[in-house]
Each structure stands twice: as structure tokens, then as C-alpha cells.
Amino acid sequence: MQCLAGDTLHPEQVGSLTKGNTSMATNASAASGPWADRLQVALAHLVAGKEQVACDMLEALASAHPETVKCQIEVATALRKAGRRAAALKCMRRAYASYPAGSRVQREYLKDLLELGHQADALAMLEDTPDDQTDDAVFGQRAAILNRHQMHDAAWTQAQKALARNPADLPARLIEINYLTRQGDAAQAFAKARQLAEEFPDTPMALIKAAALANTMGQTDTALALAQRAQALAPDNPQPLRIRATALLAADHLSEALEVLKDATGRFPDHPTLWAQKARLCLRLGDTSQALIDTKKARALTPDAFQLKLLEAQCLVSLNRHDDARAFLERCVADPDATHDLYARLSDLADKAQDADVAADFLRKGLARFPGNPGLLEMLVRKLALKGVALDDADLACVMGPVMEREKLVLLEAGLLLHRYEFDRALQVLRQNFPPQGRDPSEAILVARALAGLNRNDLACRYIRRCFHVWPDNRAIAAQLELIFRNSARSAEAIALLADVSFTNPAEQALHDLNMSNLYCHVGLTETALARYMATRDHLLRTRFRSHALIRTLIADGDVENTCLLIGDLRRTNTSAMRHSQNTLQDQLITEFEIEIQANGGKAMRPIPPDDTNEFAALVRESPRSHLSTMRLIAHWQRQSPGLYDTQAARGAGIPSRIIQYWNTPDVPEGIQAMIASWANVSGFQH
Q: What SMART domains does this protein map onto (predicted)?
């Protein structure tokens, strides 16, 4: 037989060349007609590595038999194997023109169109093909193909047609679950997924879908059981391992999750999601160097994935390579997939370099790209407010976009005034623009803060208590109540109001537990405060929030073991918590505490005698730079004589600004008055 490229192959040679490629041989043997032998010869060339020769033969063969549907399908299949997707599409277009009702023709033609990015042509093909000329099973297959190419609305349309003809159609039911998930109806999606898993107990995809949604619903045990069953049925699928790791992480079984991810990345080294998941877990466990290694492996597989770029920058920050992180993120600004998080992180890094103007500029650039983004706007407002600068109308127009509600402008203006301690003006602005009874939790919080700033503590407490009864499920209101009551020396009342409050959102509940821990510290219930913190500790470790009040209380009490535990939590590299304590009194307290216990063989300094305040104050005056001694003395005094928190009186008494957070009464004992007076002569003490 003479080939197009001039190579002559005999039937026995064709047979020997096609050995080892059973899929091609099977397709060729299924073919029949005058073109079948030439197809086998072309496939033999393809197996032998003569790709160009084979492709030339295949395209010539398809052109010679344009109306032979079987020929076009088989040639298209071979061309796809050779990477010639455009030529394959040309064949399938001929096949579809000759036989539009063919199930395989429709399926393969749709795949080729979508793979080459011809979404409009794909939708037109679906519209042009009459439903009555389409087999029932094809609708579900179409839906699955469209869903894989992120054409979710079109997929749901096809799935509905499939379910109308066959309610048990598996691909269509999977698409229905995806649709419910995207609509936010996770509970209904999970119910249908569990039913699907029961009806198809030996189908990995049904089990995987149910396991993933079990994770979403917080049912980690169910997720683990379903994922393990799916893994047993489909050991070559990485999804069950990923779902198992996610479930273990949700249950805070971190070491087990790490072992699963080590196994997963070993078995599926080309799966970037697994490397990224392992990197995030290593960050959480404090193994930052390994996290960076794993992140780079994930990025090597998907170099354009923007979230992986942010993850790499986070690793660099955790390794204290701030300059490298900033340079890396600045190169990412032009990325079309960049999110607002990029600008927030660049601003934070500029702050670490003490470059406040550049930090604000990054936020402005972010707001120009993402107008009205609340996170970026809040950061910018805070930075400008701390500098005593307000946003002018032009700035507001830039950062908020062309349209902004009047109420948002009012809240923004009031927030700026509060940051600048202009409490009277803030209250006036709010009262002029909102009804007296209030109608928005954000406005209510600002009013309460303004009243507290004016030292109208009783009124602030009454107001925030009423707001709490109006919005009992609002955690921000509960947090403001905790703060105002605590600062008004009414922590016991706050505990009575908030102790039994709970929130369905785990993150909100964790922050509420943290606030309750602070309250218990302020009423001297250190053991209860520690227990409340430990109950939510695992969740807090995933955030930037820590119990600073509890650290101070434990330091004051000389509790070395628990203090070291909380200091370790503060320094966990998975969060940016340390940026809230660096260069502050608390950071210096921790440093002094660690020096003290090292010098004393692991023991803290002796506790203050019960009736020895003035004597101890005299000792503190001998080393006025010792924040630790000062804090211990004031903490002791607070427990002995709780009174009214008065920020302005504290400032007027000459207390350094970072000591004010420990101030609790204007009735100062003689020894403490002398200690305060001594600070005025200490160079550099004022922060």
C-alpha cells in the first residue's frame, strides 16, 4: 500500500507498529470501509513517532471522505492524540454537518469547540440541535462538559433537560448540586449529595461531591468517612485525599492532616492544590521554610495562579524577609488577576518599613482599581486619621467611586473624627444625620464610642446596652459593649450580659470568647479567663487575634508556664499578630519577662506583698525603665482598688501613653504618685 508521504507499509508491519497502543488499535479495528486500512497505517506512523507523516495522512484521509461520519470521528480522535486540536475540530465540524443527531458527534464536537475557546459557537450548536433529535443521555453529558469549562448557566440548562427526561441521570444531578451550591443553598445541595451517595455507593464522583459538601457544612466525620470510601474506589484520584486533609484541618487534627498531605503530594506531585494546601498547613504549624518550598512547587505547576503569589509573599514575611516580599508583590501589581489583598499587603509592608506615605499611596492605587472596597478604604482612613489628615472631597471621589450613599459618607466622616479624638464633633455629625433611636449597628457603635470618648460613661453604657438588645446577634455590638463596660469598671455587669451569648459563625464565636477572657481578667478571675481562652485557642491560632490582657495578667501573677504558652501563641508565624505588639509596651514586657525568668532559673520575680504597694513603688522608682515592674505594681493596685477608668485624667497625671491601658482609677496612692512624678525626668520614656 502506497502512503501519502511515500512510505510503503505492509499489513504485518502495521500490526507490529500498533502493538502497545491498544486504544489506537481498538479504534482502528472498529473502523470499516475503504478508508480503514489507510487509517491504520496513519496510526502506525503516529505510534512510531512519525507525527508529521501521520498527521498529513490523517488530514488527507478526512478530506477524501468528507461525508463519512465514522471516518471523520476516528481521524479527529487520532489528531487530538497528536495535539492537533484545530484539525480535529475541522473533522468534527464535517461530521456534525453530516449527522447532527449523533450522540458521539455532538459530544466530541462540543468538547473541541470549548477546548479551543469557541464558547459562542458551542452555545449556537446547542441551540441549533433540536431536542427531539438528541438522545436523553446526551443532555447530562453536555452539562458535564459545559460545567468543566466554567459555563455554569449553560450547564444547568442542559441538566434541567436531562432531569426532565431521566430524574436519575447522574451527571445532571451532579450539575444540580453545583447549581444549588453556587446559589448559596448549601444545606439543600448537601441533602441531595448525600442522597446521591446513597443511591450510587460505588460511584467515586457521588461520594466525592457528598464529602466536599459535608466539609462545607462542618460535618467533618461524615466528610472523612465518605472521602475514605471514595479513595478506596478511586485510588488514582487526588480529590479524596484533599477532602480528607480539609476535614482533619477543620477538626484541628493538624498532625494527621499533615501526614495525609505528605502522602498526597508524594502520590500526586503534579497537583498544585495539594502543594498549596500543605504549604498553608506548614505556615500554620510554624514551619515557614518548608511552607516556602511547597509554595514554590505549587507555583512551578501553575505559575500564573495569583493566590499562590500571595502565599509566597506571606511565607517571605513570616521569614522576616520583608524587603523581598515587598519587591515580589510590587512585580505582581500588573497581574490581571490581582485582588485588593495585594494592595493591602503592600501597604502593610510599607508600614513595616516606616514609610507611611507610600503605605497610603498603595491603598489609593488599590482603591482606584477596586473602587469602594471596604477593607482598603478602612485601612486608608485609619492611616490618614492617625496622621491627623482627613479625606477631602476629591480624595473621597477617588477612593469611593462615582456614586456613594450619603449615610456611608457620614459614617466615614464620624469615624475620622473619632480617630482624631474629636468626640463632640463626631457625635454632632451622627446626630444631625441619623434618627435619635438609631437604625444601623455601624452608626450605633460610633455613637457609643463618641460618648465613651467624652467620658459620659453611664450614658455610653446605657446606650450600648439598648443597642445590644436591639441587635443581639451582632458581634460588633457585643464587642463594643464589652469594651465600654470594661473601661467603665463595670466588667461584672458585662459578664452577666454576655456570658451566655453565642454566635453560629465559628469565627465570631472565637472572638466573643476572646472578649470574655478579657473581661474575666479585669475582674480577677484569671483561671476562668485562661479556660475561656483555651476553649477557643485552636481557632484563634488561625487569626491575628490574641489575648493581650491575659498575657499581662499572667505576667503580673508570675505564672511562667501559661505566660510562655501565650507568648508562643503570639509569635505563631501563621498570623500577623506580632505586628500589633511590636514596638509597644507589651513587646517590651515580654522581653523583660523572658530576661527575668532566664536570670532566675525559670522562675518569675516574687509577687507583690498584699499590703506593700508604697514599698514596692519605691523599688520601681529605682529602675524607672522597667515596664514589667510598673505593670505588676499597677495590676496589683487595680485588684486592690478597682475604680473609674479615666483616659483624660490619666494623661493629665503624666502617665506615658502606653501605660494608660493599665490605668483604672484617679485615686492614686502616695507611692504611685511618686513613681509617676519620677517618670517626668526619664529621658526617652514617653513613647
A: TPR (SM00028)
Place of cell 507583690: 608
| Rounded Cα gap, residues 292 and 308, in angstroms | 11
Closest CA to 532 of 558, 553, 557, 555: 553
Please name which of 467, 448, 468 lies closest in space to residue 458, comparing C-alpha atoms: 448
Q: 667 exposed, middle or buried (CB, 10 Å; 0-12, 13-18, 19+)?
A: exposed
Any residues with CB less than 8 A from the CB of 298 and at least 6 apart, and which?
272, 273, 275, 276, 279, 305, 308, 311
Grid coordinates belonging to 601: 532559673
Backbone dihedral region of 501: left (phi > 0), alpha (psi from -120 to 50 degrees) or beta? beta
Q: Is 440 helix (H, G, I), strand (E, B) or coil?
A: coil
DSSP, collapsed to helix, strand or coil, labels residue 608 as coil
Residue 216, number of CB atoms within 10 A of its CB: 16
Task: Provide φ and ψ at 2, rounded to 5°.
Answer: -90, 125
Q: C-alpha cell of 85? A: 486540536
Of how many residues is the chain composed? 687
Alpha-carbon gap, residue 235 to 343, rounded angstroms? 41
H helix runs in 387-525, sequence order: 393-400, 406-419, 423-433, 441-453, 457-470, 475-487, 491-498, 506-522
CA-wise closest residue to 105 among 133, 82, 132 = 133
The phi and psi torsions of 8 (rounded to 5 degrees) equal -100, 125
The answer to whether 438 touches 447, Cβ cutoff 8 Å, is yes
Phi, psi of 33 (to 5 degrees): 125, 175
In angstroms, the CA 264 to CA 275 distance is 9
Q: Please give the single-letter amino acid code of residue 235.
A: P
How many Å apart are CA 278 and CA 291, to the nearest integer?
Answer: 7
**What integer best gives the mean pLDDT of the chain?**
75
Cβ-proximal residues to 309 (8 Å cutoff; 6+ apart), any chain: 299, 328, 329, 332, 335
Closest listed residue to residue 280, CA positions, set 325, 249, 305, 322: 249
DSSP state of 579: G
Q: What is the pLDDT of residue 645?
A: 40
Which three cell numbers, joined as nine digits, stand for 45?
506512523
Rg of the chain, C-alpha, whole Å: 34
Backbone angles phi, psi at 224, to 5 degrees: -65, -45
Contact 658/589 with Cβ under 8 angstroms?
no
Residue with cell 433540536: 130
What is the per-residue pLDDT for 684? 40
10 Å CB burial of residue 597 (0-12, 13-18, 19+) is middle
Terminus-to-terminus CA distance in the chain, angstroms?
Answer: 93
C-alpha 416/C-alpha 148 separation (Å) is 48
- Say what the pLDDT of residue 300 is: 92
Q: Which pLDDT does position 620 carry in this prediction?
A: 59
Which one-letter amino acid corresponds to residue 118?
H
pLDDT of residue 584: 52
Q: Can you read off the three cell numbers belonging to residue 160? A: 434541567
Contact (CB, 8 A) for 31 and 74: yes
Query: How far is 396 from 605, CA to CA, in rounded Å?
Result: 53
- Let me know: does 17 contact 11? Beta carbons within 8 Å: no
pTM score of the predicted model: 0.54
Cell of 684: 526617652
Other C-beta atoms closer than 10 Å to the C-beta of 15 total 12
